[in-house]
Amino acid sequence: MAKRVSSRVLAYVRVSTEEQRSSGLGLADQRAVIQQAATQRGWADVEFVSDEGVSAKNLARPGIAWALEELAAGRASALVVSKLDRLSRSLLDFANLMDTAKRQGWEVVALDLAIDTSTPSGALMANVMASFAQFERQLIGQRTSAALQAKKLAGARLGRPRSLAPVIRQRIVAERASGGTLTSIARGLNEDAIPTARGGRAWHPATVAAVLRSEALDDEARLASRVPDMMAS
What does the alpha-carbon distance between residue 134 and residue 177 come to, in Å, rounded to a whole number? Predict the structure, then answer.
């Protein structure tokens, strides 16, 4: 956990391109709400961070990225927003951010929803939001699993397009069939300076395992494609 070296609060404000044209959703309005809260709560050291003309579909924004670096380094103790949707429109992203804050020892405050992880009531509201995020994550997982299973049953090959040479795939399968461990196979490939399927220089046991899984899926797909012919004969 990063050590908090000051009571500095980072106040994050954001507008999308469309919102820049709308009154009531501008940066000045968000700043005013946060400044009022700062006065009420006694925040003496507040620094504003902004992202202008960007959406909240994810956290890949320069302003919030810099703020998270400052928080992780212990140079600030809290991140505050006037409205949760200024920070993120994704419950999953917000839940992950709260997990990060808990691990690193800083607080999250969303004024519109009374989320404040430094207070019991605010932490309760944050936990409620996290529960909804977990529910959303499970639903996404179920839908993804069902879709992949349907493709698999249809004989589709899952995973990234393969770019590993057939001779290397055959070598890995043969060494595994001969009793080689994932670690020993990876070591041999590294000693022979053979690049991975994505051009990487280092093989790891997990990389070897991925190739073996891919080969197993191909075998299943080939068998599934032959079943209709076998039944007809």
Answer: 40
**What is the value of pTM for the model shown?**
0.54
Q: Is 192 helix (H, G, I), strand (E, B) or coil?
A: coil
Amino acid at 18: E
Q: 222 — alpha (psi -120 to 50), left (phi > 0) or beta?
A: alpha
Spatial strand order of the sheet with 115-116 comes to 46-52, 9-15, 78-81, 107-110, 115-116
Total number of residues shown for the chain: 233
CA 1 distance to own-chain centroid: 20
Contacts of 211 (CB under 8 A, 6+ apart): 164, 169, 172, 197
- Give the span between the Cα atoms of 229 and 225, in whole angstroms: 8
CB atoms within 10 A of CB 67: 21
Instruction: Give the pLDDT of the chain (233 residues) as one tens digit per residue.
Output: 444 556 899 999 998 866 665 544 588 889 999 999 999 999 999 999 999 887 777 778 899 999 999 999 999 999 999 988 888 877 778 888 888 998 999 999 999 888 888 888 877 777 776 666 565 556 566 766 676 676 666 655 555 555 788 888 889 998 888 888 999 999 999 998 888 887 778 899 888 988 888 887 776 666 655 544 544 55
Quick one: DSSP state of residue 3?
A: -
Report the C-alpha gap between 103 and 100 in whole angstroms.
5
